[in-house]
Amino acid sequence: MTPQSHPSAVVAAAAATDPTVAHRTRTRTVQVLDRAGNPLVGAPVTVEQTGHDLGFGCIGFDEVHRAGRRLAGKPFTAAEEELHERLDALWFDLFDTATLPFYWGTFEPEEGGPRTAALRAAAEHFVSRGARVKGHPLVWHTVAPQWLVPKADDEVLRLLRARVQRDASEFAGLVDTWDAINEVVIMPVFTKDDNAVTRVAKTVGRVGMVRLAFEEARAANPSATLLLNDFDMSADYEHLIEECLAAGIRIDALGLQSHMHKGTWGKDKTLDVLERFGRFGLPLHFTEITLMSGDHMPRHIEDLNDHQVKEWPSTPDGLERQAQDAVELYTTLVADPRVQVITYWGLSDHGMWLNAPGGLVFADGTPKPSYDALRGLIRGQWWLAPTTATTDDDGRVAISGMPGRYAVEVDGSRHEVTVGDDGADVVVR
């Protein structure tokens, strides 16, 4: 039978017939042979998905804290450890791409003393379980080290280059995706604190800062995927991208933040953002998504950091709305083939930025309706659960579903298959 012919045995995920995401569906044909190379006809085959190509991510900051405590010899209480294990299980039951914090000021609070060991332990925790890891960020003016402020501009730039080189190099092979530089649009005009990165950005310029971050990171890890990341979805960010591309800077993907503390974007705004930033022909990563399960922040607030409250509870209406918003947003993003990674900014309400009810899980580890709704998509509708089929007259079975990793089991022998590649796999019994 030629590679173009179609086997009668087909194993298909629900995504194959979902009109919103069917265009992402791929089919891979597997032929089952015996040890003599003969097709096994009518053989029972179990197929199940084990991973998505499309990155469904979340931050993994809690794991860094846990690793730091462990390295410092400060054990958790039994209750703390139990909660962490519960949250860890929920994380891996939904997500496959972890964003870890490399904020320079907290990563290296004292000059020459980076927290490399804790970050490495956290990254290894995720990679050992099959997750991908992204570092956030290599260059940013916020959470910059205070020990940098008294230094002369030339020295600041030297140290900034050295920081990018050091961390992109030391974590190569473990962390191969980076927000190379974060929030450049506001960087030279930022006035909330006195930091050395904003100071040098005023003279180097936005494009110059982007060039520094990308060139140093790429030199340190040539195989890295490097993002330009920003919260500013206005034309100012579009113009910055245009200027960087015109300057010959190689950007691997665009990072688009979407913290929705003041109100959900809705489908129309999401489609507008996709169209305006998709025109550059670069992969799109939605890097920082937050959806409220409580009241939204007052609309008049410009800087989200200005909204400081002691308590910001979830509400019954907010919980229902968060779940609906999550389904609409994720479905809209997955429907666009330019989107490669979708990252939610916090699994649980514990430690949530601004004390907001933005987690998909309550602080005690109880899933919210939004968690269950997203799991129903990512590990349900867009996922192939273990399914048994029988090989056809040529010993073949076709797997149809979202691109990713699949396991094929025949008579107790398990084989890994990638759906999304061209050609046919041969599984030997």
Output the keywords.
429 residues, eight-stranded parallel β-barrel, four-stranded mixed beta sheet, 11 helices, 16 strands, 22% strand, globular, disordered N terminus
Short description:
This protein is α/β, with parallel strands linked by helices and 429 residues long. It is 33% helix and 22% strand.
Taking all Cα atoms into account, the compactness measure Rg is 23 Å
In one word, what is the shape? globular
Structural class: alpha/beta
Counted by DSSP, the helix tally is 11
Q: Report, as a whole number of angstroms, the end-to-end distance.
A: 20 Å
| Unreliable sequence segments | 1-6
Number of strands: 16
Largest pleated sheet:
8 strands, parallel, barrel
Order of helices and strands: EEEEHHEHHEHEHHEHEHEHEHEEEEE
Percentage of residues assigned to helices? 25-40%
Average pLDDT works out at 95
> What is the strand arrangement across the widest sheet?
4-5-6-7-8-9-10-11
User: Approximately what portion of the residues adopt beta-strand conformation?
Assistant: 15-25%
